[in-house]
Amino acid sequence: MNSKASFDYLIIGSGAAGLFAANILAKHGRVAILNKGEFTDSNTWYAQGGIAGVTDSDDSIEEHIADTLRAGAGLCHEEAVREIISRGGRIIRELMAFGTPFDTEGDHLHLTQEAAHSHRRIAHAKDATGKAVGETLLRPVQANPNITCLDHHMAVDVITARHLGRYAQGADRCLGAYILTSGGNVVTLPARHTILATGGAGKVYMYTSNPHVATGDGIAMAWRAGCPVMDLEFIQFHPTCLFHPQGSTQLLTEALRGEGAHLTDATGRRFMPNYDERAELAPRDVVARAIDHEMKKRGSDHMLLDVRPLGRKKIESQFPNILKRLLDLGIDIRLEPVPIVPAAHYMCGGVKTDVAGRTAIQSLYVIGESACTGLHGANRLASNSLLECLVMAERCAQEIVKQPLMKIPQLPQWDSSGVVPETERVQIKQNWDEIRSTMSNYVGIVRSDERLRRARRRLAMIREEISSYYWQHPIGRDLVELRNLSLVADLVVRSAQHRKESRGLHYSTDYPDTLPHAQDTILTPGPL
Ligand SMILES: Cc1cc2nc3c(=O)[nH]c(=O)nc-3n(C[C@H](O)[C@H](O)[C@H](O)COP(=O)(O)OP(=O)(O)OC[C@H]3O[C@@H](n4cnc5c(N)ncnc54)[C@H](O)[C@@H]3O)c2cc1C
After folding, report:
1. pTM, rounded to two decimals
2. pLDDT digits (tens, 9 = 90+) for 424-442
3. pLDDT band at 506 (very low <50, low <70, confident <90, very high)
4. What distance in Å separates the CA atoms of residue 79 and residue 84, rounded to the nearest whole number?
5. Is the dihedral of CA 162, 166, 169, 171 positive or negative?
6. Does the active-site annotation cover 380?
7. Distance CA 66, CA 113 (A)
8. Residue 247, pLDDT score
9. How far does residue 154's CA lie from ligand 1's centre (Å)?
């Protein structure tokens, strides 16, 4: 990248949210969209089930809203829910216009049903919807001369007027970002508007369905810049992630349970009917807690998902990708149950924003999984997240192009004076492992005051070590990620400590009851 480059719109992250925003903003100015890995490295590419939206005349927006509010356990922001859900049908039609190959039945969309939805309303492209949506949105981005695509370029921090001492009065303003290029240099990239679309932070846990890029970078960057975060204690654990050394991020979509798969113990006994009358179709948190409880009760490191009740024909026609991936690992789901474990899957919380992604800092927007609009409340309804990404991207682009044209700022270069080359990297690996095991053991599906206190103490020590290391050595991707991961882990713990009740995805043995009034957990960064 040319060191003098500047853009009207800088989009950090190329999942569904970033790609959709890029397609819209390119009609109004020069866009740079960047990704710290390949363009296929994102949670979006991993999404299997589909995208929720009302497209069937038997269904209604009010029912989709009611399902979302029920799943959110009293904490959803109804205004955000209404705004996002009411755009569902239109977003699905827009994706079809882009060319997304959703499954059809005659001239209708083929819709699936997932846990806690009262209707079949999930549009899907076989069992690889995210990849289909991603590819459809990526093609026009790569072909557009107004869009510069930069892979292996990692945002390190956003740059604000206040950081540069240019702060006058009113809200701070974002001026661009520091970028670690594919060549290993850090450059400044000025932009009129910066959008963080960096996805979630599943990597703070040992078992996760998320790819390796999900290290919470956007949340950490926004926090360091001065943006409050909201409801970070609500981490959705997917109940059924493959338990296998070579397939630790392989998810078994809940559409399998929606179509009739059973959860069993090693003896083949179904246990979900003992926990909830909806059995395998109970909300994710109920299913994940039941699996966790059965595992702890039996001292087992996994349970089983039996897909055989679906029958060979349905497995082969509706779930060909899962069938193939598991066959590659030596498991034939047509013939045998699959070992599974709950895994960190989705962050309901994030940087506090409105539906247009506006933050506390002017010209800095956060969209998609990194943001928290209040749509999900204390628990996400399945397949609402891709919808949220796309609605936010559209609303964010609309908001940005309404703004008066600001001058592209001049920015100073990154200062790397005083750093010395590293002699070994063992410390980085050790800290990565420690953070992830601390979070899994102490801040997982079931929490307590004592576990959270222990996690906080350990994380404080690790963060101190990382902080001194960070400023003494040249930065690389793993060090930047480690710094972000440790910060996000700490924010999750602090948010969990703040909540003195059990609600939705947050369950504490010290506070098993739900308080009568639902309140968001909002953490605000201290003065810079
Ligand atoms: C296995 C799995 C299955 C899922 N299934 C569904 C489903 O069926 N339906 C549904 O609605 N949701 C599903 N989800 C959730 C959904 O996929 C995500 O919430 C959504 O895709 C998030 O999109 P995003 O654009 O916000 O982020 P992502 O798609 O994660 O994209 C983030 C991007 O930011 C880049 N990035 C991160 N940090 C930096 C940095 N510092 N510098 C530069 N680039 C950076 C990443 O490389 C990536 O390109 C699933 C998630 C997983 C993991």
Report:
1. 0.93
2. 778 888 999 999 989 988 9
3. very high
4. 9
5. negative
6. no
7. 16
8. 64
9. 16
